[in-house]
Design a protein that fits this description.
Elements lengths: L1 H8 L4 H33 L18 E7 L3 E7 L5 E7 L5 E7 L4
Antiparallel strand pairs: 1-2, 2-3, 3-4
Length: 109
Amino acid sequence: MRGDAALEESPEPPRLRLLRRMVLALTATLIAGVIAIVLLLVIRLQAAPAPVALPAEVRLPAGESARAVTLGSDWVAVVTVDGAGQERIRVLDRTSGAERAAVEIRAGK
């Protein structure tokens, strides 16, 4: 019995005390980091996205209809198809809607 009481009353070794404090500090740092990341995600995801600037109207040649649209930095690409099934990519200016270029898509075999 005397041995057990002596072990309970002995002071904590300095290395064990240092290890305990380091684990406590790392745990607190980890918790603070997770909270910071969650807060940043919540703040960032609640922000409204910037509106996309599009031309007021896009005029396609008669007989062509749009199949797909892609937005670039200052242009809009529209994939069109005519009555005969010929597809074209038309590149338009993003602000004015004026056509910059047109490329025919040939069927691959």
